[in-house]
Amino acid sequence: MKKDLQINSNKKDFPPQNWFWWPLLPLYPYGSRKTYFKELVANQIWGFEQLQGLYYVAVPVRLTVVKTPGGLMLINPLPPTDELLKILRSLEQQHGAVDSIILPTASGLEHKISMPAMARAFPKATLWVCPGQWSFPFQLPLSWIGLPKSRTKVLFDDGLPNSDFCEWISLGPLDIGLGRFQEVSCFHKPSGALIVTDALVGIESDPPELFDFDPTPLLFHARDSGNEPLKDTPELRKKGWARLVLFASFLKPQKLSIPSLLETFGNSFKPGLRTLKTHFGIYPFKWHKDWESSTKGLIGQNQPLLQVAPVLERLVFPRAKKELLKWLDNLINLKGMKTLISAHYSAPIVFDAQTCEDLRKKINFSKWAPSNGNWTFLGSLDKNLLKKGVVPRNPIPLIKD
Ligand SMILES: [Fe+2]
């Protein structure tokens, strides 16, 4: 008892952004997760964003909260820090208690990792998960990874949440060799919003507002060498954001070289840069002079550019375009679809039947999953996996549940 009291009193000393479970998936910004909150559809849908990434290559991940007749439905959980919970509790006071938490993806680790903690934060909520959940290194029952059997349900197998005003559409399941890919999208009929996880994104040139709290990742990557100090201007934030998007989309973009160790360390440990924040001046990247030209077709200049995320196109759907087109056909038929809210990048963005039809045409008639330019690294990764028999040849078989 005494020990519990001590733990509780110590907890109060932690900042409200503290995330204790970060070692489970040790991504930047590790144990401190700032939350950005925004109303996405007036009085109906809200977004919470936190950063997640590697080596300052961090992009926001979004939790979407939908008002239901019974309270609130959470889609794609995020680490429930005190800061995030405080905002959620105030939403509960206005609109009712959280009654369901949805994990709509079988593969997106960044979305799965905080489901148990979110479940504990809302002990009365029903938990819904995408079929085919897996755990690593051993396949464990859901109850062993923190999802109590008594209130956990599997989408489709055990019914669907709020099905009178939400339509649930599955993309996949596909056996991609390395595991199962499936995500379930939610079409919220009252607002016309389609809520997806990773399948579609809209990327714009302005950095997300979340970076206003700490623009360090943008400024770090806006430099051309480790001996340059971190300067903060709107232009440099945009430059850094464009490079982060290139990294996150293609892992190793075309217009990027890795300098020699001699060059990297020759530019490091300069006066004023001997801090952890600047990684002691170690910047092992060299962007080519014309690097900006490689953002064409990826980042929209005046509005978010709608697309299938390149990693998904090249590593998940390279030989399953048909499945993606089938899913888009289902979306085209949704009545009253107006906007797209995905778990990454800009939201909400315009997405009606016509936009969806245009995207379908573009995908159908343009070269799919290329292996040149920015796509070279992703293409070689896929070809190697194919050669080793890790990923299946055309067509990727559907898993039968
Ligand atoms: Fe994701």
List the helices and strands and how they pair.
Layout: H1 2-11, E1 36-41, E2 45-54, E3 57-68, E4 71-75, H2 82-95, E5 98-103, H3 109-112, H4 115-121, E6 126-129, E7 152-154, E8 166-175, E9 180-188, E10 193-195, E11 200-203, H5 216-221, H6 234-250, E12 256-257, H7 261-266, E13 286-287, E14 305-308, H8 310-316, H9 321-332, E15 339-341, E16 349-350, H10 353-365, H11 376-387
Parallel strand pairs: 4-5, 5-6, 6-7, 10-15
Antiparallel strand pairs: 1-2, 2-3, 3-4, 8-9, 9-10, 11-14, 12-13, 15-16
Helix pairs in contact: 9-10
Short structural summary:
This protein has 401 residues and is α/β, with parallel strands linked by helices. It is built from 11 helices and 16 strands. A hairpin with a 2-residue loop joins β2 and β3.
Which small-molecule species are bound to the chains here?
A: fe (ii) ion
CATH topology category name of the largest domain: Metallo-beta-lactamase, Chain A
Overall body shape = globular
CATH architecture of the largest domain: 4-Layer Sandwich
Mean pLDDT: 88
Strand content: 15-25%
Sheet of most strands: 7 strands, mixed
Q: Biggest sheet: strands side by side, in what order?
A: 1-2-3-4-5-6-7
Q: Alpha-carbon distance between the termini?
A: 47 Å
Structural class: alpha/beta
Count, helices: 11
Weakly predicted, low-confidence segments: 1-11
Q: CATH superfamily name of the largest domain?
A: Ribonuclease Z/Hydroxyacylglutathione hydrolase-like
CATH class of the largest domain: Alpha Beta
Question: What's the helix-strand series?
Answer: HEEEEHEHHEEEEEEHHEHEEHHEEHH
Helix content: 25-40%
**How many structural units, i.e. domains?**
2
Q: Assembly state here? A: single chain
Radius of gyration: 22 Å
